[in-house]
Amino acid sequence: MIIKLIAIILALAIITMAIIAVTNKKLVVSIVAAGVVSLFASVFYLLLAAPDVAMTEAAIGSGLTTIIFFYVLNKIKKDRQDNV
Amino acid sequence: MFKKIFIFIVLAGFAAILLNSLSLFNPDQQLNEIATRYADKGPEEVGAANLVTAVIVTYRGLDTLGEVTILFLAASIIGFFLKLKLEDEKVPRKVRKASEILETASKIITPVIFLFGIYVFINGHLTPGGGFQGGAIIASGLVLMLLANPVKKVNHTIISVVESISGFSFVILGIIGIFLAGGFLDNDYFGLGTFGELLSAGAIPVIYIFIGLKVGSELSGIVSNLQETQKEEI
């Protein structure tokens, strides 16, 4: 019962964060929101008894992908300023 | 205006398809044929306490080899394109210094993260996790190190040597399996050992160590390539 409640709260949080990631005007906020989606999803996988997938999602989805997006965002900003 | 209506029509179509398949969804009450085979015969044939590892490394070992190859291709393509950019300018980067807390904490935590990653892939056949997860954890430790010290240079020679040797050994171990065991990437070389011990499950721990080193060095290579081609402060 309590696990179902946690799962529903997690699902709502994932959907909220995904909407923020899509609609927010600032790219930095979008990247962080996408990372949080992965973090909540990894907890969800743990509840669904898939610890292997949860570890992958936490390390790659919310850790490495977020930092790579930030690096790429920084590169794109630099290129844009050069062109203007 | 017409474009927005069109988008809504497409979205409604997707919703109709998904709702339809949701109403038809009927969860299985028992394992299907292949899963039953793996669950029943897995422990005695492969000897790994973690059944996911038994499937990934032995039964579906060829798929894992393909995945590692795809990851290698992605890493080398990223490195290739960033290298072209790097040669235009040799201006040293201006970076903001990391805070005292981050610097000190990273010195303490980074070795522990590396150790945890190694633990995860050595124990891949006993506990959840394995080569891919352990490699990703090692790469996240490298990210923390680079955040604390943004101008640090990572030695690319070590990364490529470790990466090549592990990939090569993975394939060699698979080929040894053809002669000593049942087929390509079969793990039963000299008996399986006691079920549930660290030195058990034949060649699985060795194969997973190589997969872990390969994935870790590939992801570290991607991150450090991106970090070196940054020019301004982040």
Class computed from helices, strands and strand pairing of chain A? mainly alpha
Strand content of chain B: under 5%
Q: What count of structural domains of chain A?
A: 1
The counted number of beta strands of chain B is 0
The total domain count of chain B is 1
Reading the helices and strands of chain B in chain order gives HHHHHHHH
Task: Please summarize the sheet with the most strands of chain A.
Answer: none
What oligomerization state is this entry in? Answer: heterodimer
Principal-axis shape of chain B: globular
Task: Give start-end ranges of low-pLDDT stretches of chain B.
Answer: none
Using only C-alpha atoms, the radius of gyration of chain A works out to 16 Å
Mean pLDDT of chain A: 86
The chain-level structural class of chain B is: mainly alpha
Summarize the structure.
Chain A is 90% helix and 0% strand.
Helix/strand layout:
The complex is a heterodimer of chains A (84) and B (234).
Chain A: H1 2-23, H2 27-47, H3 51-83
Helix pairs in contact in A: 1-2, 2-3
Chain B: H1 2-24, H2 33-45, H3 51-59, H4 61-86, H5 100-122, H6 131-148, H7 156-180, H8 204-228
Helix pairs in contact in B: 3-4, 4-8, 5-6, 5-8, 6-8, 7-8
Overall description:
- Chain A is an all-alpha fold.
- Chain A has one domain.
- Chain A has helices at 2-23, 27-47, 51-83.
- In chain A, helix 1 runs antiparallel to helix 2.
- Chain B has one domain (48-87, 94-228).
- Chain B contains 8 helices and no strands.
- In chain B, helix 3 packs across helix 4, helix 4 packs parallel to helix 8 (204-228) and helix 6 runs parallel beside helix 8 (204-228).
- Chain B is globular and about 60 Å long.
- The two termini of chain B are 39 Å apart.
- The interface between A and B is medium-sized, with 16 and 24 residues.
Tag the structure with descriptive keywords.
heterodimer, A: 84 residues, mainly alpha, elongated, B: 8 helices
